[in-house]
Amino acid sequence: MDRWLFPLLASLLSAIFAYFLGQQYRERKKPHQLTWLVSFLVFSFAAFAEFYSEVWGWNAGLYRFYYVAAASLVAFMAAGTVYLFSRRAGHLFVGAVVLVTLVMLYRSLTAPINVGAFVPGVTVAGKAMPNSVRIFSPLLTVPSSLILIFGAIISWAKAGAWYNLLIAAGTLIIAGSGSAARFGVPRFLYLGEMLGLAVIFAGFMKSREVIRARDGARQGKA
Prior knowledge:
Elements: H1 5-28, H2 31-56, H3 60-85, H4 87-110, H5 131-134, H6 137-159, H7 163-182, H8 189-221
Helix pairs in contact: 1-2, 1-8, 2-3, 3-4, 3-6, 6-7, 7-8
């Protein structure tokens, strides 16, 4: 299977995900829906950049924005989970994420890029970015992945909603493929992103069904 297909599918699925989240936000105006919307819009861009690189090749400008997007999307996703537990903590977490992302973006835009790492057919991940920028990536991805995983498990334990386990599993897949790429094994990055996103999307769609059924039951009682 052509390598470009995985990031293209991930980009399309992320855009569909963002559409549903936009619908939810218009209806309910919950902050966690807004941060998830931002996260999956960023995910769609990052995955499209990977697709673009496989078909037409990387350029330094696109890569600078891609690298920051790939690191920050998990953090914005985790912000939604934090909001589910505490609005105040969610505000603080989003503030920290935005601050780190902006500093990382500034460093990325001014850092020298190793264009020699842009080899056709080879996943570049973070190899073209200097350590002065790469050091920010784990600040965003590591705690955010833990928040997503344990937040989903806690929600499942409290409410018995098994679809939260799908969200935890999908996060593990994405985090695992991203970590492998960071430590020099990038061959599974695109596949891991697509599979992890698909699992998260399945959990999200199931949660929509449960919420709609619950709302319908409440309206029936009223």
